[in-house]
Every structure is written in structure tokens, then in C-alpha cells.
Design goal:
Layout (H helix, E strand, L loop, with lengths): L20 H12 L9 H8 L3 H29 L1 H25 L2 H21 L2 H7 L4 H30 L14 H25 L14 H5 L11 H4 L3 H22 L1 H8 L1 E2 L2 E2 L3 H29 L1 H22 L4 H30 L4 H8 L1 H21 L7 H24 L24 H4 L1
Antiparallel strand pairs: 1-2
């Protein structure tokens, strides 16, 4: 039965619609996007384990670090074994993470929660995140930004599903828990059943993606697609570059810096969003923004994070990948400057600026696979993408450290004002400026890094590589 997971058994039959592939990828990304919803039950975990916020927050950090590491080290395996097997492995690790985490909660062994949700779940995150990327690009050689945006949009929107679902499940398993009360704490038993339910439920949904994913047959191309039109674009290669060679190029490391800077700036807002909007409008120790309104603001940011992944990555198909990153980073500098100088003057202005910043944050994630395709071809783009995601792991540590480091020096939580955030915001402007310059320096990959023509199929034909079919 497991042989059905092999790449050679996933080749699409004649007439198979390529528009069935993004929903298959979305089934995986919507599930693993739950990682952005961990704050829903964070206070309940703190109360259950009697642990500090830092001790519980480490769970999320471990998961994001393991995402980057598993994507980097597992990328070549994913590329060689095809999307179906990769999605299946991702589902197994993701579900196992919840179940081992549930055991840790039931026995009050915090290390099991680190091992389960953090390590095992993080591996599922990394493998699942990159598993459909290469396949989507091969199905959509004419619109790679749109295709990857459709899937990666699901990762950004996963919390929109997981947050209310988790609250309702906690209310169902613990009648004393109030889903509408941000200070309400669920029982340990409710947390155990929440993790068990999510683990099983997500596994089932991810299996829908496993069953429906297909790779295009050798020689397939979309109707009306002209490879010459793609080849004519100055930043789009018609050659192929291996993952091993890609990390030897200047273009890869410049793009690593670009992604790191874009994510660092965005995650600095995302991680501090709820208290930030309250602090910006605090006068004489009292904020004019309620806790409920701050929660709604976080939800709005998630919407813009998700929408930006689709809208901006689709736009990149029209104007190009390098220009769209100049928008993310250049306009991002302007938005951060306005937020620092004038963000405290009106709630509407603050929300508008923050939503713009988060749309660029999401857009950067969704556009980078297509940027890699343009620079390195489709030969091992999934493996290259996995290695590039180490920038995400680094930014996941750097962004919160920068913001929290400045805020800790300014005063205690609940007493801060807009002025306390300005040093952090101006630092983020500097980070974005570094990324802007790095993007300007990106050039096409030199010929010496290209694979021989007879060892790999070029991406402009829309074919599936030999390594994917054996």
C-alpha cells in the first residue's frame, strides 16, 4: 500500500486539471498553519504546568526552528521522493506531535510537549511547508507566483480556522471555560482532548491532499504556454541548478538576507501585536483600546497576512520578483517610519500601517519560491527552498529579540507607550534597508553553476524531472 506514495504512481493522467493541485496543497498548509494559533491555549498551559510564559513560549520557538532545519535538511529527500510521500510523512509527524504533546499534558511532563509539538510537530511543519512547492511550480510555469501564493496563503490563514476552532473545542471539553473571555483558563483534561482532536482531525484533512496531489507527465505544458516568453525575461533562467550548487552562489545568500530582513521586520509586529496597539494609545496608564479590540486587531492582521500571500505573489507574475521585493522592503521602510512617527495619532492610521506591513510579510513568504524558480530553475527548487527557510528560523529568533529587548529596557508591560516602541521600529527600518540593498545586488546565476542539459529537464518545458519519477 505504501508504494502508492511513490512519485512514479502520482503522475497525472491525460486531461487532469492542474487547478486540482492548489487545493491539495492548501489542505496541508491550512493544517500546519495552526502553529500561529498557539496563543489561544498558552495561558491554559501556563496554569496547567505552573510554568513561566518563557517556558511555554519555548514550545513555539522549537517548532519554528525545527521547521527551518527539517526543511533545509529534508529538502533534497522531498525533491527525490515526490510530493505525495512528503505530504504523508508531514501528516504523520504533525499528528504525532499533537498526540505526544497530549501525553505530556496528561502526565504534566513539559519535556514531552517540547518533544511532541516542538520537535516532531516542527518536522511535520518543515516537510509539509515545502512538499507542494516544486510540484506547483511545474504545474504553473506560466504563473508560479499565483500557484505558490494559493498554497502558502493557507499557512498564513491556518490560524483563522484554528483559533476559533480551538476555543470552541475547549468550551466543549470544559464547560467552565469561556471562549469569549481572554482570561479564561481551560482544564488540563480539556487541553489533552484538544490536542488529541486536532491531531486526528488534521491528519484526516491532510490525507485529502495526499490522495489528490499529482505531478505533471513528462513533456506536459499548459495550453497556450510559450516557454520562449519566459526565457525572454532577464531574471528568469532556462537552465537548472542543483541544491548543492545553489548554496554556493551569491544570489542564494543575497536572497537569504532579503527573506531574513523581510521576515524579521514583519514578525516583530506580529509577535507583539495585541499589547502594541494598546500601548500606542495609552494615556495616564489607561489604554483607549480594549482587550477585545486588540484581539480583533490580531485577527485582522492574520487576514492581511493571508491576503498578501496571494495578492502580492500574483502581482509578481506581472511585474517580476525583484521589483516586488523592492516594494516589500522599500515601501515597508516608509510604513515603519510612519508607524514610528505618526502611528499614535489615530487608531485607524495605526491599523492601516500595520496591516500593510503584515501584507508584505506574507507576500515575501509566498513570492520567494517563484523567485527561486526564476534564479535556479525547477530541477531541485524544493530542496533549495528548504535551505532558504533557515532564514525564517533565524528571523523567528531575531525579530522578537529585537522588539522585546528594546521594550524590556523601556519599562514593564502594561505601562509602555508609543515612545517605547520607536527605537525598535527605527531598528526595523535599518533591517529593511539592508534587505533592500541585498535585493538590488541579486543577479542571474553564472553558467558555471548550471547542470548539464542532459542531466536535468529545464523548467520552461513544464516537465517533471527524472529524479522525481524514480
Amino acid at each position: 500500500m505504501l508504494s502508492a506514495l511513490d512519485a512514479r504512481h502520482t503522475v497525472a493522467p491525460p486531461g487532469y486539471s492542474r487547478w486540482l493541485i492548489p487545493p491539495a496543497a492548501l489542505a496541508v498548509h491550512l493544517c500546519i498553519g495552526q502553529v500561529y494559533a498557539t496563543s489561544v491555549y498558552k495561558n491554559s498551559l501556563i496554569a496547567h504546568f505552573g510554568a513561566s510564559q518563557t517556558a511555554i513560549g519555548v514550545i513555539f520557538s522549537i517548532a519554528i526552528v525545527m521547521l527551518g532545519l527539517s526543511a533545509a535538511f529534508g529538502g533534497t529527500w522531498v525533491e527525490a521522493n515526490g510530493p505525495r510521500k512528503a505530504m504523508f510523512v508531514s501528516a504523520c509527524f504533525w499528528a504525532a506531535g499533537f498526540l505526544v504533546g497530549a501525553l505530556g499534558i496528561a502526565t504534566k511532563q513539559l519535556w514531552l510537549l517540547y518533544l511532541g509539538y516542538g520537535v516532531l510537530g516542527g518536522i511535520g511543519l518543515g516537510i509539509g511547508y515545502i512538499s507542494p512547492v516544486s510540484t506547483l511550480i511545474k504545474w504553473f510555469p506560466d504563473r508560479p507566483g499565483l500557484a505558490t501564493g494559493l498554497a502558502i496563503m493557507g499557512f498564513g490563514g491556518g490560524a483563522l480556522v484554528a483559533s476559533p476552532l480551538s476555543r470552541q473545542l475547549l468550551s466543549f471539553y470544559d464547560p467552565g471555560y469561556s471562549a469569549g473571555n481572554a482570561g479564561s483558563v481551560a482544564s488540563g483534561s480539556a487541553l489533552v482532548w484538544l490536542f488529541v482532536t486536532l491531531g486526528i482531525g488534521y491528519f484526516v484533512v491532510m490525507m485529502l491532499g495526499v490522495v489528490n496531489i499529482r505531478v505533471p507527465a513528462t513533456g506536459w505544458r499548459p495550453a497556450g504556454f510559450d516557454p520562449a516568453a519566459v526565457a525572454a525575461k532577464p531574471m528568469v533562467t532556462t537552465a537548472s541548478v542543483s541544491a548543492a550548487n545553489a548554496i554556493r552562489t551569491r544570489a542564494f545568500w543575497l536572497l537569504w538576507v532579503v527573506l531574513f530582513c523581510n521576515v524579521t521586520a514583519g514578525i516583530g509586529i506580529l509577535e507583539q501585536a495585541s499589547p502594541m496597539i494598546q500601548d500606542f494609545f495609552r494615556d495616564n496608564g489607561v489604554s483607549s483600546v480594549s482587550t477585545a479590540a486588540a484581539g480583533g486587531f490580531v485577527g485582522l492582521l492574520s487576514l492581511f497576512n493571508m491576503a498578501g500571500r496571494f495578492a502580492w505573489s500574483s502581482t509578481s507574475d506581472v511585474i517580476g520578483r525583484k521589483p516586488i521585493y523592492l516594494v516589500y522592503l522599500g515601501v515597508g521602510i516608509v510604513l515603519y517610519a510612519l508607524l514610528a512617527v505618526a502611528g499614535h495619532t489615530a487608531v485607524a492610521l495605526f491599523v492601516l500601517l500595520a496591516c500593510g506591513i503584515l501584507s508584505f510579510y506574507g507576500g515575501g513568504f509566498a513570492t520567494v519560491p517563484a523567485y527561486l524558480r526564476d534564479l535556479f530553475g525547477t530541477f531541485q527548487v524544493g530542496a533549495i527552498h528548504g535551505r532558504l527557510l533557515t532564514a525564517w528560523s533565524a528571523a523567528g529568533v531575531a525579530g522578537p529579540l529585537i522588539v522585546n529587548g528594546f521594550l524590556d529596557a523601556q519599562g514593564k508591560p502594561g505601562t509602555l507607550t508609543a515612545a517605547a516602541y520607536r527605537p525598535a521600529l527605527f531598528t526595523m527600518i535599518g533591517v529593511l534597508a539592508v534587505g533592500f540593498v541585498a535585493n538590488l545586488l541579486i543577479r542571474p546565476v553564472p553558467d558555471r553553476f548550471h547542470e548539464p542539459r542532459d542531466s536535468a529537464r529545464t523548467e520552461t518545458t513544464g516537465t517533471t524531472e527524472r529524479s522525481d519519477l524514480q
